[in-house]
Amino acid sequence: MHESKDRGALLATVRAARPRDWAQSAAAWWCREAVDLLPQRFVAALAPAGRPRLLVDRDDTGIRLQLNDPRSGVQAGETTHAGEVTAAIASILQRHGLDRRDVDLGLRLPEESVFRRELMLPPEAKGAIDTIVPQNLLRRTPFKAEDIYCDHLTATSPDGRIAVRQWVTRRHHVQQAADQLGLAVAHIDFVVFGDDQTSPSIRLARPAAARKTSTVAIAVLGALAVLLGSSIAVLTFARQQATLARLDAEIVVARKGAERVRVLVDQLRERRTALSRLRLQRSEVPGLIDVWDEASRILPKHSWLTELRLVEGANPRSATVTMTGFSAAAPSLINTLGGSRLFVDAALTSPVAMDTIENRERFSLQARIRVPDAIKEVAP
Questions:
Q1: What transmembrane ranges does the database entry give (predicted)?
Q2: What gap in Å lies between CA 364 and CA 348, rounded to an integer?
């Protein structure tokens, strides 16, 4: 029954942590992508190898101070006595050019003052480890949160589950060791246990400087992202403006070309119209052959021509024909020509005279060529 309650609480915690897990995964992905764009030297400045650590260890021979700075590779140590710990800490840090606020201070406690335990969690609990492990500790052990310090490490087991190792120490152990050294617990950042170099470590509080570094790194990455986005926007805008300017120039050139083409088209249209008018005039205006055929058709047998002359005027309507010849009844030819479909306004141009040789009347008359209606509309 107790096991089922623990499992239900674990699943509830996992479900509640999923949105946070997604947010953390998205933030981690964004940070990785942003870091890939930065120079390696800049990345190293934003993500240093680690903070310097100063470990205070009390044994039968005295009090030992061990300084380890992974950034510069400095490892130093010295021995002092009770009552001089604070001064010794300040002295060793000053010699190595370190500020107390940039160094994590820790104590070494006896091995018997730590409680160890291990547990396995499902893969779905990955985003809620920091919440699940402390809750599980308080439910499965008699410890109370206000009486202990605890910390944990995780690893992935071969079957895909999450293996958790947790260490717990009581607060009074830390308080007692700090009082013996004349230090305040509020100034202690971590504690280790035993003499082994791989002994477990419990963080009492997250270093403020680390939080500050993380905050600065996030702010710098955010500023870089904004700068990168702004640069992309500016480059895109500049590229678009250059494209628009190029298109404007091409439009101006194309417009001039279109105007030239329009002028040529208008000229060709006028020439085509004039050519069409000329062709129409030539096809519809009667020619000399038409005049000769019509005169041969309407003249009576007692009349014949000695001269037929077609005179073209400035326009089709002013074309005239002049006929000279002999006829037995020359005056009647005026009426004959008046009934023609081709001749109009016929009239004698000289008096009729009798020719004694031909025994016919000699005549000379003139008529205007009848122009079709289509020609009249086209003619200017």
A1: 216-238
A2: 6
Quick check: 220 and 64 in contact, CB under 8 A? no
Q: Give this prediction's pTM.
A: 0.47
Q: Which residues pair with 193 in a beta bridge?
A: 109
Of 77-86, 89-98, 195-204, 331-340, the least confident = 195-204
Domain 288-378 has CATH 3.30.70.2830: yes
Among 314, 290, 311, 286, residue whose Cα is nearest residue 372: 286
Q: Say which residue the tokens 């202990």 belong to.
A: 148
Residue 217: C-alpha distances to residues 27, 130, 164, 225, 335 (Å): 13, 23, 29, 12, 120
DSSP 227-288: HHHHHHHHHHHHHHHHHHHHHHHHHHHHHHHHHHHHHHHHHHHHHHHHHHHHHHHHHHS--H
Half-sphere exposure of 30 (CA within 13 A, CB side): 11
DSSP-derived 3-state class of residue 188: coil
159 close to 120: Cβ distance less than 8 angstroms: no
Half-sphere exposure of residue 79, counting CA atoms within 13 Å on the CB side? 5
Q: Which two tokens stand for residue 98?
A: 């370190």
Q: In Å, how far are 13, 15, 224, 256, 308 from 2, measured between CA atoms?
A: 17, 20, 51, 90, 139
Give percent of the chain above pLDDT 90: 26
For the CA atoms of the chain, what is the radius of gyration? 60
Q: What confidence score (pLDDT) does residue 285 get?
A: 67
Q: Cα separation of 247 and 251, whole Å?
A: 6
Q: Are 113 and 84 in contact (CB under 8 A)?
A: no
Q: How large is the greatest C-alpha to C-alpha distance in the chain, in angstroms? A: 179
CATH number of 2-47+103-205: 3.30.420
Q: Which residues contact 237 (CB under 8 A, 6 or more apart)?
A: none
> 286 phi and psi, to 5 degrees?
-60, 140
CA 167-68-169 angle, 5° bins? 15
171: which DSSP letter? H
Measured distance CA(54)–CA(93) in Å, rounded? 9
* 190-193 and 104-109 strand pairing: parallel
